[in-house]
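Supplementary Methods, section 5.1.

A reviewer requested that the exact input to the structure prediction be made available. We therefore reproduce it here, unchanged from the version used in the analyses.
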Amino acid sequence: MPGVENDKLPNPRTATKVLAIGLLPEVNLYIHNIQMITTIDFESRFENFLRKMKHEKFKGVPDVRLNNDNVLIDERRITVSVNNTWKNIVEDSYVSMSSPNQQGVSNSGGSLTIKNFRCHPLVALIFRVEYKATVVVPGGSE
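The structure derived from this sequence is encoded cell-by-cell as follows.
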C-alpha cells in the first residue's frame, strides 16, 4: 500500500506558512497612458453584429421597418478590478477610451487609481474592455 512504511501511516503534511492578505500593507496604484490596440475593422464588425441581433429580434414583428444606420458605439472603457481568485476585493476603477484612429489605437482620457491594493501572489489585476452602444429600436426608444 503506498505511503505505509513498517505498518505505520505517514505523518500528515504540515501546512506551509502563507502570509495572510490582511497583514500586507495597502498601497495605491496609479496607471497612466493606457492604450488599446484593435484591428481597424473591429468596431464596425461589432456594430454590424448588433444590427443583425436587432434584425433577428424584430424579424417576425409586422409593420416594423428597420434602419441600418441606428447602431453606434457611444463609449469605450477599460475597467480594472482586483481579484483574489474568487471575488473582487477592491472597488472597480475605470477610464474612458477615445475612438480608435486609423491604426486601431485608442488612448485613455485620464489615469486609473486603484486604492488599497495589497500585493500578494494570489491577488490579480483584471483588465476588462467594455463597450456601450446605442441601438435605436422601432418606436424611437434606445
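Residues 25-135 form one domain. These observations are discussed further in the main text.
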